[in-house]
Amino acid sequence: MLKIFKVTAILEGISYLVLFANMLFIKTSNPELYHTLLRPLGMTHGVLFIGYIVLAFLLKKSMNWDLKTFGIILVASLIPFGTFYIEKKYLENNA
Questions:
Q1: Of 8, 20, 70, 79, which one has the greatest count of Cβ atoms within 10 A?
Q2: What is the phi-psi region of residue 64: left when phi exceeds 0, alpha when psi lies from -120 to 50, beta otherwise?
Q3: What is the DSSP annotation of the chain?
């Protein structure tokens, strides 16, 4: 399950950045493309975000994360590049 969480963390981070890129760059240059991409990108990111949170809760006990570490892992999903940090710092050595 840890490997699935690692992949989900990376994909969630990528989807977050792609969603921001769509919002910041494509919206201003091509509004029609923005609206075409918004729904599938948003849905993909939403599913990956929920998967990240659910997997974090499922792994909390088996990984022996204390409350502070668990909080950092959850908050990282809200920050751009946060899930990449989590994958590198907390998950890399536990494969």
A1: 8
A2: left
A3: -HHHHHHHHHHHHHHHHHHHHIIIIIHHH-HHHHHHHHHHHHHHHHHHHHHHHHHHHHHHTTTT--HHHHHHHHHHTTSTTHHHHHIIIIIGGG-
Q: What are phi and psi of 62, to 5 degrees?
A: -70, -25
Burial (CB count within 10 angstroms: exposed 0-12, middle 13-18, buried 19+), residue 13: buried
- Cα 45 from Cα 83, distance rounded (Å): 13
The pLDDT of residue 51 is 96
CB 56 within 8 A of CB 70: yes
The token duo for 45 is 């990111």
